[in-house]
Amino acid sequence: MAQKSQSLTSLALQKFKKNFWGVLSFWYIVLVGLIAIFAYLIAPDNTANANQMHLSIHSKKPGFEVNMLRIPETKASSSSFFSDLLFGKPISFTEIPISSFSFSNDTLNITEYAADGLKGIKKAIPFAKFDKTTQQEIETTFINQKRFLLGTDKYGRDLLSRMFIGARISFFIGFIAVFISLVIGITLGSLAGYFGGKVDTAIMFIINVAWSIPTLLLVIAITLAIGKGFWQVFIAVGLTMWVEVARVVRGQIISAKQLQYVTAARALGYTNFRIITKHILPNVIAPVIVIAAANFAGAILIESGLSFLGIGAQPPTPSWGGMIKDHYNYIILGKPYLAVIPGLAIMSLVMAFMLVGNALRDALDVKT
User: Fold this and answer.
1) What is each CA distance from 229 to 48, 128, 294, in whole angstroms?
2) Which one, of 362, 366, 358, lies nearest residue 284 by Cα?
3) Can you point out the beta strands (E) in 6-77?
4) Rounded to an integer, what distance in angstroms lies between the CA atom of residue 1 and that of residue 14?
């Protein structure tokens, strides 16, 4: 009975599926990616950057509950679905945490929430503010009990919402930084390995110079040169991660260009560009894929370090590294979860990418 021949890709995929930790890490990365994409749709605070501050309920423990009064804004701006998905909903109400409320005539009387046994400020709000006429309508529509599953940060913002939206920074920096590093690294490594001679010498000089500079120092220098911000960090990290890719691609192409299929391609009159892109690179791409997975993890760590130092994503944009920076003092103040939660998120995502990289290395190894 004839056996079906399987491609190397299908064989590698079968080997990858047998690696329990690799598959588990892959699906965890997919989950984090979905959370990052749909963060504003699933976050309890879906306003821009989840930046609704309530100083009266700052630094509350996970599971904290409080009655929240929502007062509609007089001029609420409209937005589209895609705008809400990408940037969050515009603020159309004012939230006030309250400890008690009552009604008298056409007025809502509230007592604002105050912690540590203090008495909250009392206010009287006319029904006209709500565009409602009955007590029941106001109570059911504008007063609800809000629960903070992960508690609140030092500014009284919902920590769970900030974690969801902060995943965008840590997750997407991996894609953009790795994409930049692959484009630069594969291009320079291919040119150096294939042409050799003076081209190789010039490119290797650039590689060695970039390799000799500490990564974090180079990222800080690039960030300060092009400015602080969301996209600047992505570009800065990507521009520092191409060196290893270039060295590996160069070494692989130096070995591959001596093989018979490259000699045959030259004899057929194919251009150098076609030989590199169509014949050599597909056969040497396996180690590059493994390096790319490791670079994902490295990019997340570098971005977290930059945010911790204050030169990464700038407030109020949420970032896991920035959240650790804001709350590391709370580790010794009895509320370590404010820094531990984003720290665990960074650790788990980095570990997931490293485990996927190890699984890919084993799956793509032709000797096993």
Assistant:
1) 16, 42, 24
2) 366
3) 64-72
4) 22
3-class secondary structure, 322: helix
Closest CA to 321 of 330, 310, 336: 310
Is-contact 42 35, C-beta < 8 A? yes
Q: Splitting the chain (368 residues) into consecutive groups of 10 residues, what average pLDDT does each group show?
A: 58 87 94 93 91 91 92 73 85 88 87 83 85 80 91 93 92 86 93 91 91 80 76 81 91 88 88 89 86 88 84 84 90 89 94 91 72
Indicate the helix (H) or strand (E) that contains 203. helix 197-212
Residue 202 neighbours by CB distance under 10 Å: 13
What is the side-by-side order of every strand in the sheet holding 143-148?
A: 122-126, 107-112, 93-104, 64-72, 143-148
Among residues 256, 125, 143, 123, the alpha carbon closest in space to that of 189 is found at 256
Topology (CATH level 3) of domain 159-364: MetI-like fold (1.10.3720)
Provide DSSP, 292-317: HHHHHHHHHHHHHHHHHHT-SSPTTS
Extents of the domains making up the chain? 54-148, 159-364
pTM of this prediction?
0.86
Q: Are 50 and 150 in contact (CB under 8 A)?
A: no
Burial 70-81 (b: 16+ CB within 10 A, else e): beeeeeeeeeee
How far apart, in whole angstroms, are the C-alpha atoms of residue 94 and residue 106?
20
Residues across the chain: 368
